[in-house]
Amino acid sequence: MPENTPLAYFLHSAGPAARPVLVLGWSLAALCVGVCVIVGILLMTAVFHRRGATGHRMTERGGGRAVLAGTVISTMLLLAALIYMLWVLAVVASPSREPALTITVTAYDWWWKADYGEGSPQRFSTANEIHIPVGEPVLVELKSADVIHAFWVPSLAGKTQTIPGQVNRQWIEADKPGVYRGQCTQYCGAQHAHMAFEVVAQNPQDYANWYDAQARPATLPATVDATRGQHVFVERCAGCHAVRGSNAAGVQAPDLTHLLARRLIAAGTLTNTPQNMMEWIAHAQEIKPQSLMPDIKLSPNDSRDLAAYLATLN
Question: Measured between alpha carbons, how far is 283 from 263 in angstroms, rounded to an integer?
């Protein structure tokens, strides 16, 4: 199966934190299927069993031995499964070496904020897209701004909940470059299914280039339309969104400083195209009902100017 199909995210591991969990999952699935098959065979045997000519039934002693054997075997299998699960938990609890970097991920209804470089001059935030260097363990500190969510990138690691007022930690590592789908797996409200994100694993040099580009402020508008569009953005959008290098400094919604560098918008709901972007601005409540993004009604001129400004956020 191609590794970029949705089902493949759950059937392939791409890092050392996910591989033991994947093997454990298949092992438990095989155990469950085996138990169901055995029980089915025994049930069918009992239903269709015909007595011999003598009509003898199984003696009480023979029946007791069968029950005892079944109990012992079941107990041993369950104990072995428990030991195996505890071993996997110990293996994936921490990376084999010190994490190369720490990313703070905060879950919101219904999107993800990723903070890089906390405490350094090159601090910045992105939304719904997490970049990591290939071959390096990365520590992810998980927070929640509202309700309980769950952070899960099946190809890279198991699930970890984000709980208000608490910081949970998880580590991820990718073996090779690629884009790995993530998803909230704790029901958190109306748009729980539309709370996705992507982890982009890059070779170290590409990651360093991306990091340097993200740390820079937005470029100044170079055209009249874009300049007018910046004023529209500050008036209509800056209460929630931020663009570093401008007067927009909102903290309740995604930082849009380098919006065009992202592949998806609206937490994985739409591909990042100019048409989808303006559709999202005008009809957010139709696309993602009950989200905190309101429908923003713009005149044709303001819409054109805002689109020109957003096109500069690369």
Answer: 20
**Angstrom distance (rounded) from CA 146 to CA 244:** 25
Taking all residues of the chain, what is their mean pLDDT, rounded to a whole number?
A: 89
Residue 288 covered by a domain: yes
The C-alpha angle 177, 180, 182, rounded to 5 degrees, equals 155
Residue 59 pLDDT greater than 60, yes or no: no
Where does 120-263 have alpha helices with state H?
Answer: 204-215, 224-236
**Do 231 and 305 fall within a single domain?**
yes
Q: Residue 8: inside a domain, yes or no?
A: no
146 within domain boundaries = yes
Tokens of 188: 């958190």
| Count of structural domains within the chain | 3
Helix (H) and strand (E) counts for the chain? Answer: 7, 12
Question: Distance between CA atoms of 135 and 193, rounded to whole angstroms?
Answer: 30
Contact 156, 137 (CB under 8 A): no
Those residues with Cβ within 8 angstroms of residue 118's Cβ, 6 or more apart along the chain or in another chain:
102, 104
Same domain for 205 and 271? no
Using the 3D structure, point to which of 186, 215, 244 is the last residue of a domain.
Answer: 215
Last residue of a domain, one of 33, 65, 92: 92
Q: Find the helix packing angle between 300-310 and 274-287, rounded to 10°.
A: 120
Range of the domain at 114: 101-215
In a domain, 9, yes or no: no
d(CA 215, CA 161): 28
Confidence of residue 8 (pLDDT cuts 50, 70, 90): low
For residues 122 and 141, the answer to whether their CB atoms sit within 8 Å is: no
Could you give phi then psi for residue 114, rounded to 5 degrees?
-120, 120
Please report which helix (H) or strand (E) contains residue 67, including its range. Answer: helix 60-92
pTM of the model: 0.83
The structure tokens listed for 308 are 């020109």
Q: Give the H/E segment covering residue 160.
A: strand 160-162
